[in-house]
Structures are given as structure tokens and as C-alpha cells.
Amino acid sequence: MSFSLAIVGRPNVGKSTLFNRLVGRRLALVDDQPGVTRDLREGEAKLGDLRFTVIDTAGLEEATDESLQGRMRRLTERAVDMADVCLFMIDGRAGVLPADEVFADILRKRAKHVILAANKAEGQAGEGGYFEAYGLGLGEPLRLSAEHGEGMPDLYDALKPLAEQFDIRSAQEQPEVDVELTEEEQELGEGEDIGGASREFTFDKPLQIAVVGRPNAGKSTLINKLLGEDRLLTGPEAGITRDSISVTMEWNGTPVRVFDTAGMRKKAKVQEKLEKLSVADGLRAVKFAEVVVVLLDVSIPFEQQDLRIADLAEREGRAVVIAVNKWDAETDKSNKAKELREEFARLLPQLRGAQLVTVSAMTGKNLDKLQEAILNAHAIWNRRVSTSRLNNWLGAMTEAHPPPAPGGRRIKLRYMTQVKARPPQFVVMCSHPDELNDSYKRYLINGLREDFDMPGTPIRLYFRSQADKNPYKNKTKSTPSRLRKHLGKDRADAPKVKKQRPPKR
After folding, report:
1. What are the binding positions for GTP 2 in this chain (predicted)?
2. Is 12 annotated to bind ligand?
3. Is 191 assigned a ligand-binding role in the annotation?
């Protein structure tokens, strides 16, 4: 039975550090300044033989209005309501502050189970705060050091009995599945495929999607609308998202994991260390994604930074979908759509044929079309073409437009095969591959897109010389061969014949 554990507490008490330790990876951004975490981040945690979902939350602050801190607090309170167990962390070095007492009262009323922990409690500096924690009335506190891993056995001992309770409850809630069928029902069921065709993706290995774009393009709002709930923090302020947060959902039977990333500004404007970490986290999400959704703002589409982000996704070999957000605010939709398509074709020729979808994250308009475009882009990204079809196609392409003949020597394209998918990669064996110009390579790549229905996906085309397969190509010659260089036509191993001098006259 898997249960959920929400880590809650004031800002900068070490929640994200403990989260990273439990999941075994550096998923959450960690910095000395308070308030780094703003969204809810989930991860699969391991502690001994326990397996559970851990939730990293924003630091609790005394704000209840519509400010950024107020919205962050409401998200954290929602995590408290959803979680099976709450781990309430205080700073052992700072001791119990008035805000800790306020939040202890909230947890006492709202949380199902609360475990109290004094973090940063290693050494004598943390002893005072550890003993102060008893006064919160939440039972005996744990003494932890998330940074150094101290106190993990105590946390295991606190979670183990709760995990056993959840196991018992889960067993009682299991539906009855042992039923007897009549002979007629058994005959009807024989040979039928239950549940339809097998899916390519599972919840353990879902389709990975990254949503990227400039700050305030509406990435978090879009994902919340796809998810059907306000999981991610949103608002009019630019740059709210800092971590790359992932959420898992299902689209028409396809499990997907969507990554919300921090807005990417021009490099010259990124000065703060924390923003650099956030952008690096977003770039990492692009590298691990299978499909990248580049989200644009319809009021200022295809800015220089948008083009850089789209080009980055293409260079990383990811399937790309362009989504233009805030479409509900556009008045002249017909002319704007035509203008967007023309700019897309002109400014991003490397993504020729990729789908462009206009959406409204606020109202949910055209999100079904966006989902369809993403699944279609992934199918194209996975496409494979048989070697026989490729070589028939190559013959027709070279006949229609022969390769160049630099220096009067015609380059011969002899053989072609696909060596990889995700993205599609092809190798052509030919003569003089170094002399093949870029325009002819583009001619072949565009032909692959059109003739094998691969619009928009990155295509990698490599040219190799057949001489590269010669095992003796780079082999040094033997010693007798070096001797022949000096002896001319004479054999190096032939016995030398002493030349006779002509007789004296």
C-alpha cells in the first residue's frame, strides 16, 4: 500500500532538502534564501522497505489574501487536506517561532496524522529548538538533519505503524473480484481481448511532455486546466514557477507526465543565482521530455527568446508542438491565425510541418486539439521506415535530382537505412560524403518529411563512405612494404645480387 506524506513548515526549514533525500535525487531546487519552493512537487520516496509518495510544499506564511504568499499558503493547505500523513518541520537552530505555533494549531485541526520533526538539530546548536518543540503539543518530535541524513531511522519508525494501518484499510476497501460465471457466460468470454489493445505507455513509464516558454506565457494555467484542478501556483506575476514540477494524468487511455517549467528569459537578463537554477532545471526537463510544447503569448508571439527555446528543443531531438495561448483575448482571429502560420514557416524552417495550435488556458478552448497534436507528434517521432522502401525512395529521388558532381566526379548514393527512431535517424552510404553540399541534404530531408509523413519532427541524416567499412583503411603497412619504398621494384625479401664491375681496359 502506498501512502502520501506532505512535508510542511515555515520557509527555509529544510523541506526540499528532505524531499530530495527521500526520493534519492535532486529534484527540488534548494537555496539558502527562504521561499524557493512555490508549487507542490510530488516524488516516489523510499525509506527502508517503505514506498510512498512524498509532497514538497511551499513554506507556510501568515497570509490569507490574494497575494502570492496567500495563494502559496492555500496550495499548501490543500496538500495537508489530501495527504495521509503530514511531517511538520521546524528549524531546530531557530527554535519555535510564533508562526510555528499558528501552523501547529492548523495541522491539529486539519491533518489526519501529524509527525513533528526538528530539522537542523545536529550538534548542540539544535538542542534548544528540539526541546522547545515539545511545547507544540504534537507529541515527541524527531531530531533530524536532512542535509546529513541523520534521524532517518527515527522517521522510519514513526512511519512504519502508520503504513501498516493503511495496508489494513486498503485490504478492507478492495472490491470483490472472485465471482463465478455460468457456462454460457464463459463461452461468450472465450477468445475475447479484454480491455482492448495493449497500450504503449504505463503509469510507471508515461509519455513525457515538457511545457516551456517565456515568463507569464500561461504554462501553469494550461497544465492546471489539462489536469482539471488548481495543482500549480498561478497569477499575474511573471516568473512564479521556479521548479520543474511534474503532474501525471491520463488522456483517452494514455498515461502522460507533464512538466511545468520556469519561464526562460534572455541570458543577459538572468542575474540571480536562483533564476539560473530554475532555467537550468527547465533545460533539463526539455532533455528528458519526449514531446516539447512551446507556449507562446498571442499578443507577442515568436519573440527572439521563443525562437531560441524552439530551436533548443529541435537540437535536442524532441518532438515539438507550438501552442499559442490567450487566444480568447484575440479579436481578429482569422487574420491573426494566417499571420501566425506565415511567421512560423518563415522563422522556424527547421520545424517545417510541426503543428501550431491556438489555445486558451483560461477557458480551456482547443485543449482537445492540443492533446491530439501532442499524441500525433509523438507517433511521428517514433516512426520507422523499412530499408527496402527507403532504397526505392532514394533511387527515385536521385533520378529526379542527381547529386552534385564536384570537380567533375559524380557523388553516388548507394544505400540507405534507418538506424534509430526517437527522433528518426538515417544513414546513407555514398562516395565522397564530405563533398555533399547542405542544399542536397535539405532536399533529401524535406523529401523524407513529405513522402513518409514525418512533418515537424527532427530528422537526422548522416552520410558515410563505404571506405569507412574497410578494415584495412587505417592499418599501417608492414615492414617489407616500407622497404619497398626504398628498393623500388625489387622485392624486400629477395637475396641481394652483388653487382660485377666492368673489366678494366
Report:
1. 213-220, 260-264, 325-328
2. yes
3. no
**261 marked as part of a ligand binding site:** yes
Q: Is 13 marked within a binding site?
A: yes
57 is in an annotated binding site: yes
Predicted pLDDT of residue 193: 35
Q: Has 469 been labeled as part of a binding site?
A: no
Its pTM surpasses 0.85 = no
Candidates 1.20.810.10, 3.40.50.300, 3.40.50.2300, 3.40.50.800; CATH matching 207-381: 3.40.50.300
Domain 387-469 CATH class label: alpha beta
> Mind listing the pLDDT tens digit for each residue in 123-166?
777 788 888 888 888 888 999 888 888 899 999 999 999 988 87
**Between the CA of residue 496 and those of 5, 334, 374, 481, 490, what are the distances in Å?**
90, 92, 78, 17, 9
Is 326 one of the annotated binding-site residues?
Answer: yes
- Residue 417 annotated in ligand binding: no
Q: Which segments within 363-412 are labelled E, that is strand?
A: none
Between helix 219-227 and helix 367-381 the angle, nearest 10°, is 100
35 is in an annotated binding site: no
- Separation CA 501–CA 276 (nearest Å): 87
Confirm or deny that 468 is annotated as ligand binding.
no
Q: What does the DSSP 8-state code read for residue 216?
A: T
User: Hey, which of 126-135, 170-179, 191-200, 259-268 has the most confident mean pLDDT?
Assistant: 126-135
Residue 9 known to bind ligand = yes
Q: In CATH terms, is domain 4-170 a member of 3.40.50.300?
A: yes
Q: Is 133 annotated as a binding residue?
A: no
434 is in an annotated binding site: no
For the chain, what is the mean pLDDT? Answer: 77
219 annotated binding-site participant: yes
Is position 189 annotated in a ligand binding site? no
Please tell me whether 20 is known to bind a ligand: no
- What is the SS3 assignment for 95-149? CCCHHHHHHHHHHHHHCCCEEEEEECCCCHHHHHHHHHHHHHCCCCCEECECCCC
- Ranges of CATH 3.30.300.20 domains, the chain: 387-469
User: Which residues belong to CATH 3.40.50.300 in the chain?
Assistant: 4-170, 207-381
Q: Is 416 annotated as a binding residue?
A: no
